[in-house]
Amino acid sequence: MRAKLGIIAGGGDLPVKLLDACRRQGRPAFVIGLTGSAEPRPEDGVADAWASIGSVGKILGLLRDAGCTGVVMAGNVRRPDFATLRLDWKGIKVIPRIVAAARHGDDHLLRSLVTIFEEEGFKVVGADQILDDLLMPAGPLGRYDLPPALMPDLERGIIIVRALGAVDVGQGAVVAGGDAVAVEAAEGTDRMLARAAELRAGWTVRDGLLVKLPKPNQEKRVDLPTIGVATVEGAAAAGLAGIAVAAGATLVLDRDALVARADALGLFVVGIRR
């Protein structure tokens, strides 16, 4: 039997897809839902146990008791208020390291979490190692491709996102007509797109694009860029012509549904290698 995988689940569909993949692969899995981040899905029977993000000792104990040797962290996790976070004894021991890392940005925070799990004897794996069929390929998905007229916006978007990533701020930016319409920070991609839609309200010509790339030297095992149907719909609501993401380093959730929606809305979704 293959080694059991512990899935530490935040919000969104990614943890569910990881569990489905484990079942298809005949790989045993144990799911810990993070209270306050993971949606309770009793009808799906996803979570085997629940723990708060401050209950580090409880999480480690649950993983050991379940016989897990590997750990994957997946899904959206709300950044906690460290001043009010309730901690167990292990949490009290490691929280100074986590807080110190968090001051430098989310990537540093995630790296510190990876190190803690590795120190406890767990192998941390990336979601892409389980869901390699969800990685974005190079080139267009669906009917539409990036038009040559938008290449300047793409190049500017790449420069902006790389600058954001260099200071561990965000993974995405909206660029139209050479202007940076919105950049991603703690709010995430969906809210950034909603803000861009507000700024472009009444815009009648669809142009510009969303650019989404990993941060330089990013800890890809725990924070790969991800897009789904909601990303396509958000880009359309913002009046954009399409989406460009990193090929081989972006997870595409519900690919068939995403392609169908993008084609119906007339948007391109392309994977780029830079």
UniProtKB/TrEMBL annotation:
Protein name (database record): DUF1009 domain-containing protein
Residue ranges of every copy of the LpxI N-terminal domain listed in the record: 4-134
Highest taxon above the source species: Bacteria
InterPro entries named in the record: LpxI, LpxI_C, LpxI_C_sf, LpxI_N
Organism: Oleomonas cavernae
Residues of the signal peptide: none
Domain named LpxI C-terminal: residues: 138-270
Pfam families found in the cross-reference section: LpxI_C (PF06230), LpxI_N (PF17930)
